[in-house]
Write a sequence for this structure.
C-alpha cells in the first residue's frame, strides 16, 4: 500500500515538473549558465593590475628595479608620472591601483652602501588588489636584493618553494568546489521550497489530505521526485567542470559524487522544511534565498575559516556548505578519498538526516 | 447503524469569533442531508471539523461510529470529499488526477483502470479524459471533482458547495448524479446557499451565524413557519369573513372580480383539504379552485432567520 502511494506521489510530481517550464529552466539552465559564466570568468585569463611608476632617480639601479617590476606577472605599468603628487592623483582617480616611487639618489645611496626606500602608494579599497600589489612588490624587492648582493658581494638568504598538491592550482580549480556548492544548494532548495505551500495556496492540499496519505508519503514522495530531477544538476556541474574546463578531479570521481549527493539531499530537505513552514510561495522563495547568504559567507571559500573571528568560526562550523566545499576540495585538489574526509562526510550526513526527518515532523495534515 | 453522522455540542472559536456555536446534528444512513445557509454561516467550518481537517474547540463528532479527529484514518476510507474550491491538480489531466487519487487509496493495475473508466462513463467525461484539469469548463471540473471523491466507492459523500458558481442547467444535471448515487445507498451531506437546490434533499438543516436554526424535511420546515400548509381557496361570490372564520384559520381574505380569495393554513393539506371542501360545499358555498401555495425555502429561511435573530436580541435585553 505504502509503496503504491509513494510511487503515485513521485510520478505526479515528475509529471508536474515536466509541465512547468520555469522549473525545467531552473533545473537545467541555471547550473549550466552558472558554470559557464564561472568558467569563462575565472578560467584562462591572466588579469594584471595596473600601476604607475615615478622614477626620480638618475642612476642605473632604478632601471634594474623597473625591469624586475615589468617581469612580474600580476602587474603591468600603465603610466609614468613625474612627481609623487602626480602619482598619488593617479591612484586617487582610479587610473591605477598603485604608484611605485623610486626616490632621488636611489642609486647613489645604494652605491655608498647605505639603505634606501621605495615608496608604494596603494589603493586599499579592494583588499585582494592591494594584497596582490604588496606581494608583487615584496617579490620585486627580494629579487633586486639578491641581484645586488650577487654583484656587490655579501651574504643573503634565498627562499626556495616546494609545493604540496601542486605544482600549481589555478583560480578555476580553486573556486570549482564553491561554485558546485552554490548550484547544489540554491537550485534544489528554491525549487522544492514551494512544493508544499503551493499545494496549500492552490487548495489541492485539502483534497490530498482527505485521502489515506501520510505525511511521510507526502514528504518522501516529493523529496524522491525532486532528487531524481536535481541529480541532473550534480551531473551537469561536474561534467562541465571536468570536460569543458578541464578541471582535474585528482581523487575518485565516485567519491566526489557521493559527497555531492549527500549535500544535494540536505539541500532538498532544507527546502522541504522551508516549504512546510512557509505560508505562501513568495515567503518560501525569500527564505530559500536568505538562507543561502550565510551559507556563502561562511563556506570558507571566500575567506578561509582560520582567518575568521572565533565567533564566525563557530557559525562556519554550523554551515553545511563549509563541509561540502572542504570535502569537495580535498577530493578534487588533494586527491583524497572518502575515508580521509570522514569528519566532513559525517557532518554532511547528519545535516541530511536532520533535514529529512524534521520536515515530516513539522507538517500537519490540517487546513487552518 | 442508524446514523451516519452524529454531532453534539460542536463549537469552533477563532479567537473571540465563534464560527460554529454548540451545534447538534444527526444525519441518517442513506439520506441526502442539505446544509443551508448564507456565506459565513459556518457550514464549511463544520464540514472541515467533521472531516478532521480542522480541530474542534469543543464537542463530539461521530461518523459511522468513528470518533473524529481520533479515528480520522477510518473516516477517510469511507468518505468521499469535494471541497468548496476546485482542489485538484490543474496541470494534470482528468485521467491522471483520477489515477493519482485512486493509487492513494491503494487501487492499482486493472482494478484502478476499470474503476476510472466506469466513473468517466458515469460522469460523461470520456471525451475529455486527456485534457488538463485546468482547461475544463466549470461543469466538467465539478464532475471531475465528484469522480475523484467517488473513486474508492465511499459510503458517505461530503460535498461543500459543489454547485457554487455553476449555471442552473448544469446544477440540475449535477443533482441528477447525486440522486442516482443516493439511490444506490450513498449517504450524502451537501452544503449550498442555493435554496432551490435544497428541495432535492431528504432533510435540511438551516444554519445562520454558527447556529443550526431549524432542521427537518423541506415540507416540515415550510409548515413550521406558518404553523401548517398554506392553501389558497377561491369561492364564488363575496363571502363575509365571519361566516367561515369560526372554523377556519384564515390568514388573508380578499375579493377579486366577484370572487373571494382565501388563504388558509392547514396542519396537513393533503389530509384536511378534501373534508374542508366537503364542508364548504355543504354550507352552499361554490368552490372555484383550491390548491396549496408553493412556499420557497428562501422565504422560509428569511422568516426563520428573522425570528431567530429577534429571539437572540430578546435574550440579550
Amino acid at each position: 500500500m505504502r509503496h503504491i502511494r509513494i510511487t503515485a506521489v513521485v510520478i505526479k510530481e515528475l509529471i508536474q515538473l515536466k509541465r512547468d517550464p520555469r522549473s525545467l529552466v531552473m533545473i537545467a539552465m541555471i547550473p549550466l549558465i552558472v558554470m559557464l559564466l564561472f568558467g569563462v570568468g575565472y578560467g584562462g585569463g591572466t588579469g594584471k593590475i595596473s600601476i604607475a611608476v615615478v622614477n626620480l632617480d638618475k642612476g642605473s639601479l632604478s632601471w634594474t628595479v623597473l625591469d624586475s617590476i615589468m617581469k612580474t606577472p600580476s602587474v603591468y605599468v600603465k603610466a609614468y608620472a613625474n612627481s609623487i603628487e602626480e602619482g598619488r592623483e593617479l591612484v586617487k582617480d582610479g587610473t591605477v591601483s598603485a604608484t611605485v616611487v623610486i626616490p632621488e639618489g636611489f642609486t647613489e645611496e645604494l652605491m655608498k652602501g647605505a639603505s634606501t626606500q621605495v615608496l608604494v602608494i596603494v589603493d586599499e579599497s579592494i583588499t585582494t588588489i592591494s594584497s596582490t600589489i604588496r606581494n608583487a612588490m615584496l617579490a620585486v624587492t627580494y629579487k633586486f636584493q639578491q641581484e645586488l648582493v650577487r654583484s656587490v658581494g655579501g651574504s643573503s638568504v634565498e627562499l626556495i618553494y616546494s609545493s604540496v598538491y601542486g605544482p600549481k592550482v589555478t583560480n578555476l580549480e580553486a573556486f570549482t568546489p564553491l561554485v558546485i556548492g552554490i548550484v547544489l544548494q540554491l537550485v534544489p532548495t528554491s525549487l522544492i521550497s514551494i512544493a508544499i505551500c503551493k499545494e496549500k495556496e492552490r487548495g489541492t492540499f485539502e483534497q490530498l489530505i482527505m485521502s489515506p496519505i501520510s505525511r511521510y508519503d507526502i514528504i518522501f514522495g516529493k523529496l524522491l521526485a525532486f532528487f531524481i530531477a536535481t541529480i541532473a544538476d550534480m551531473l551537469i556541474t561536474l561534467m562541465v567542470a571536468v570536460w569543458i574546463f578541464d578541471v582535474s578531479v585528482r581523487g575518485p570521481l565516485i567519491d566526489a559524487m557521493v559527497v555531492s549527493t549527500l549535500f544535494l539531499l540536505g539541500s532538498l530537505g532544507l527546502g522541504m522544511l522551508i516549504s512546510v513552514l512557509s505560508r505562501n510561495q513568495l515567503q518560501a522563495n525569500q527564505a530559500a534565498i536568505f538562507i543561502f547568504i550565510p551559507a556563502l559567507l561562511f563556506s570558507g571559500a571566500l575567506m578561509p575559516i582560520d582567518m575568521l573571528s572565533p565567533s564566525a568560526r563557530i557559525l562556519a562550523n554550523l554551515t553545511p556548505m563549509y563541509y561540502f566545499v572542504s570535502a569537495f576540495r580535498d577530493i578534487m585538489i588533494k586527491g583524497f578519498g572518502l575515508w580521509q574526509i570522514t569528519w566532513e562526510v559525517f557532518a554532511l550526513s547528519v545535516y541530511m538526516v536532520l533535514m529529512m526527518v524534521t520536515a515530516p515532523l513539522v507538517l500537519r495534515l490540517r487546513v487552518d | 447503524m442508524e446514523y451516519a453522522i452524529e454531532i453534539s455540542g460542536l463549537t469552533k472559536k477563532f479567537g473571540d469569533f465563534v464560527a460554529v456555536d454548540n451545534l447538534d446534528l444527526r444525519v441518517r444512513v442513506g439520506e441526502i442531508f442539505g446544509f443551508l445557509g448564507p456565506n459565513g454561516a459556518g457550514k464549511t467550518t463544520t464540514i472541515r471539523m467533521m472531516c478532521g481537517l480542522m480541530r474542534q474547540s469543543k464537542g463530539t463528532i461521530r461518523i459511522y461510529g468513528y470518533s473524529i479527529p481520533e479515528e480520522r484514518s477510518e473516516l477517510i476510507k469511507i468518505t468521499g470529499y469535494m471541497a468548496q474550491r476546485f482542489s485538484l491538480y490543474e496541470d494534470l489531466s482528468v485521467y491522471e488526477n483520477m489515477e493519482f487519487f485512486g493509487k492513494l487509496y491503494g487501487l492499482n493495475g486493472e482494478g484502478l483502470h476499470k474503476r476510472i473508466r466506469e466513473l468517466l462513463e458515469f460522469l460523461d467525461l470520456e471525451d475529455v479524459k486527456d485534457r488538463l484539469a485546468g482547461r475544463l469548463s466549470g461543469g466538467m471540473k465539478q464532475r471531475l471533482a465528484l469522480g475523484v471523491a467517488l473513486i474508492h466507492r465511499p459510503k458517505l459523500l461530503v460535498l461543500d458547495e459543489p454547485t457554487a458558481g455553476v449555471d442552473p442547467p448544469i446544477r440540475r444535471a449535477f443533482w441528477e448524479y447525486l440522486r442516482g448515487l443516493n439511490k444506490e445507498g450513498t449517504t450524502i451531506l451537501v452544503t449550498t446557499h442555493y435554496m432551490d437546490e435544497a428541495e432535492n434533499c431528504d432533510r435540511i438543516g438551516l444554519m445562520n451565524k454558527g447556529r443550526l436554526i431549524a432542521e427537518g424535511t423541506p415540507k416540515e420546515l415550510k409548515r413550521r413557519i406558518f404553523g401548517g400548509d398554506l392553501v389558497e381557496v377561491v369561492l364564488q361570490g363575496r363571502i363575509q369573513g365571519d361566516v367561515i372564520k369560526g372554523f377556519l384559520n384564515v390568514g388573508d381574505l380578499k375579493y377579486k372580480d366577484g370572487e373571494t380569495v382565501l388563504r388558509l393554513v392547514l396542519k396537513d393539506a393533503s389530509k384536511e383539504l378534501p373534508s374542508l371542501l366537503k364542508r364548504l360545499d355543504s354550507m352552499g358555498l361554490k368552490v372555484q379552485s383550491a390548491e396549496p401555495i408553493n412556499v420557497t425555502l428562501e422565504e422560509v429561511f428569511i422568516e426563520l432567520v428573522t425570528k431567530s435573530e429577534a429571539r437572540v436580541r430578546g435574550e440579550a435585553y
About this structure: Residues 297-316 of chain B form the longest helix (20 residues). Chain B has two domains: 3-216, 227-317. Chain B touches chain A through 30 residues (CB under 8 Å).
